[in-house]
Amino acid sequence: MAKCFSFAASRDWWYRYSFTSAGLRQTKPNLVLVHGFGANAMWQYGYLLRHFIQRFNIYVPDLLFFGRSFTTRPERTEAFQAECVMKMMETHGVRKMNLVGVSYGGFVGYNMAVQFPEAMERLVLCCTGVCLEEKDMEQSLFAVSDLEEAASTLMPQTPEKLRELMKLSFVKPVKGVPNYFLTDFIDVSPLNICLCSYSFPNYFSL
User: Fold this and answer.
1) Residue 144 scores a pLDDT above 70
2) What is the CA radius of gyration of the chain?
3) In the structure, what pLDDT confidence band is assigned to residue 24 with cuts at 50, 70 and 90?
4) For the chain, which residues make up each domain, given as ranges?
5) To which CATH superfamily is domain 29-134 assigned?
6) For 48-75, how does the pLDDT look when each residue is reduced to its tens digit (9 = 90+)?
7) Is 59 within 8 Å of 31 (Cβ atoms)?
8) Are the beta carbons of 84 and 71 closer than 8 angstroms?
């Protein structure tokens, strides 16, 4: 794909434009949508916003090192991610919220509920293994031998690895996607960040 045009960057811009133009209403409850690995917040929730935006004030934050979010502090845990999301909500004047967390975002949401229970009205965790036991990991469809293997799949750096992630993520994954499109997506998305930026959740200590 020519460098003068990026489908992924254009789609990212459209998601952000259409979302931010919707505005907020004081009469509506607040709903925070926290994304997981694989893409930034708008890519994961963009197509779902129309179902919620009439009933809720929607907040779709990019977790640290996703989208344009970053920090110079050394912390990399989901507990620190939770603190950052809460500080962002407080900056927007939001003290009460409903929260939906998907996958890794569910761990962040879980930590927000633990640290700030007074702020949580309702909490929904989707595809989040906060109650996993070791035997569940051994029988998982996503069986990995170590953290590096998990990271290489959850944050793929090549088209081949991205296809592998798509097979794990979708019941009917799209086939025949050309390499240049997948490479473009990796370049625009947070998938091209340094893997050492993350601390994966400890499933057995929550």
Assistant:
1) no
2) 17
3) confident
4) 29-134, 141-201
5) Alpha/Beta hydrolase fold, catalytic domain (3.40.50.1820)
6) 888 998 899 999 998 988 877 888 888 8
7) yes
8) yes
